[in-house]
Amino acid sequence: MSEVIYRKYRPKTFAEVVGQKPIKITLENEIASGNISHAYLFVGPRGTGKTTLARLFARSLNCLDKKEGEYEPCNKCQICDLILSGRTMDVIEIDAASHTGVDNVRENIIANAQVPPFNNKGYKIFVIDEVHMLSKSAFNALLKTLEEPPRQVIFILATTEIHKVPETIISRCQRFDFKKIPQADVVKRLTEILEWEKASVPDHILSEIARRSEGCLRDAESLLGQIISLDHGQVTEEMASLVLPRSNWQEIDALVESLRQNNLSTALNQLNKLVNEGIDLQNFTSDLIDYLRQIMLYQIIGPSFALDFSDALIDSIKKHASEFPLKELSKLLNIILNKLTIKESMIDQLPLELACVEYLLEQQDSTNITTPISEEILETPVASVPQNTANKTEILTTIKNKWPQIVEDTKPFNHSLSMILKTSHPLELSNDRIIIGLEFDFHLEQLDKPAVKGHMVEVFEKILHHKFKIEFKIDENFKDNHQNFKGKSEKEVSDVLDTFGGEVV
After folding, report:
1. Does residue 176 have a pLDDT over 90?
2. Measured over all CA atoms, what is the biggest interatomic distance in the chain, rounded to whole angstroms?
3. Residues 197, 224: Cα–Cα separation, whole Å
4. Binning pLDDT at 50, 70 and 90, where does residue 23 land?
5. What are the tens digits of pLDDT across the range 107-161?
6. Domains assigned to the chain
7. How many CB atoms lie within 10 A of CB 225?
8. End-to-end CA distance of the chain
9. Contact status, residue 176 vs residue 43, Cβ threshold 8 Å
10. Are 87 and 123 in contact (CB under 8 A)?
11. Three-class DSSP category at 471
């Protein structure tokens, strides 16, 4: 049986380790100087090199042929050979996930720690993986040994969930935080493995493997091994798709663009096209969420945010980040995530279709609908707002006189908006800012939105020939200022009935 890729090419020297440069430098210096701690804590995501560096560290400390001041193991001496083959009793690896109890700690660690190493000049090293899985009593038993370890004993604790490790344990260890491997470094490593294996895989597939691994080099190497096992010569895209789910980023980009433009029919057609082409919608949805997340983070963080995509996709992400309002982007992500709670559907694409429909229906209620605007022109157009009080009063009076027309022209945008405005009034004029008085807080919540204000600006500009800024506020003296508030006309009552349904009884 051939050895799996990630085991076959596990680094044997510090120079071969991918990423984690600060950690490597620190460990190398400690080995070269002989300034060794009794306990180390390796923290970080899976597949980022914690176990690899622990084994490498142990091998280097016990190497028989390593010269003073050096840090790389020879990988040829008896001790190195025993450690590489897993046949030494001086390097004991324990999976805490399957040895959680206090008895296991006492038998496998505490008792063995009292036995001196095979090489009197070397160390007995315990590598405890997934250490956070130990029970409370097991941690307490281990703590005593960590506090007073035998002279030639070193502990290397590894965990992916540092928050589950007691502070008493953390405080007695030298801590190293491992980071996810950058996509570029993963691709470089995969390229090296292909050269050693004398195999060929298209560059864009390597990039996709690196992206899907999410900084976990072990996962990336495992995927590559599966792909090249299909054909050790030239691996085609069709072959790779048997292992690597197909991802069509152009289709994802196109769908996002359709949603941004509020084009529901195009978005739904795109989804059904994907189904007809046999694309895995679960994988597509996952990629869509990742794509939207990247847009959101780039929009918030800016150019300093690292984008792990091809140059073409990075350009698309930057474009959408500049055009897609953050609020709407967040709303879209939430809607998609909520629709994923639909566990079973007779129609595979239905959850995504519902997400698109819900998002765009909400958009229709609040944004981006082109509406006809009244073209009636004032006899005396308002080109600018004068600063003197007399003229301000005159302009405010003109606005009040035109208020019924302004209200009427908001109907095509949102009928309920016009109904609210009928019970409001122009309150103040300050430079280029019109303040509209409202009576109720819930009306303020409905109107105080960028989309509503934007539409009101358009209406005012068409009717009054001036671009005013719009503000809404609660008018504490509403009944005194709003002369028509006491009663509704028959027409107003009729409008309410048309809007909400019902009849007068």
Report:
1. yes
2. 104
3. 11
4. very high
5. 778 888 888 787 777 888 899 889 898 888 888 888 888 888 888 889 999 998 8
6. 5-177 (3.40.50.300), 183-241 (1.10.8), 249-366 (1.20.272.10), 389-500 (3.30.300.180)
7. 20
8. 86
9. yes
10. no
11. strand
